Amino acid sequence: MTDEHELGRMVRMLPDAPAAWVEAAQALPFLKDELDSILARAEGDAGFRQALRTDPATALRSEGYDLSPSVVAHLMRKLPPEQGS
Fold it and tell me: Where are the domains of the chain?
C-alpha cells in the first residue's frame, strides 16, 4: 500500500499541466456563473429561450456572450423545456 509521502513523491514527478488546462480550470467558476445567468434568463424570458432554440450562437452573440461551441452545446442541454412539453 502506498502512503501519503510516497504518493506526494509520485505526484511531484508528474510534468506540469499544460497552460491551457490551468487557464480553463481557473475560468470554470466564472463560466458557471455566466451559464447560470443565461439559464435563469431563458427560464423567465420565452423570447430569449426561443431565440436560443432557433440559433443559439447568434442569440448569445447578440447579447454579448462569446462562448465556445462546446459550452453552447452544454448550455443547450441544460435549457429549460418548452412550456407544455
Answer: 19-78
